[in-house]
Amino acid sequence: MDKRYTNAKLRQALERAVGAALPPGSQQALLIWHEDSRGDLCLQAVDYVVWALARKYEHGDLRAYKQIADKIVIEDVIEAPLW
């Protein structure tokens, strides 16, 4: 995850929320690390995808979303009071 745009408390809250979404008794491990996207092209690409989705759902702006829509396999909206 990109650490450049959020503070430590929000990052920790997001980690807890993701961990809580794992099935009870799950044997899955959760490992999240935070990097600065300025030095990671892959993280920049993911940041663009998240931004395009946010523009779609928060502002009804489909311009960026249309560029990636055919690449999305499953699109599931999670609503939580934290974000």
Please give a structural write-up.
It is a single chain. With 83 residues, the protein is an all-alpha fold. It is 46% helix and 0% strand. It has helices spanning 8-20, 41-59, 63-68. The two termini are 15 Å apart. The relative contact order is 0.14.
* Tally of individual helices: 3
Question: Level of helix content?
Answer: 40-55%
The amount of beta strand, in percent, is under 5%
For the terminal residues, how far apart are their CA atoms?
Answer: 15 Å
Task: Summarize the topology.
Layout: H1 8-20, H2 41-59, H3 63-68
Summarize the structure.
This protein has helices at 8-20, 41-59, 63-68.
Features:
mainly alpha; 3 helices
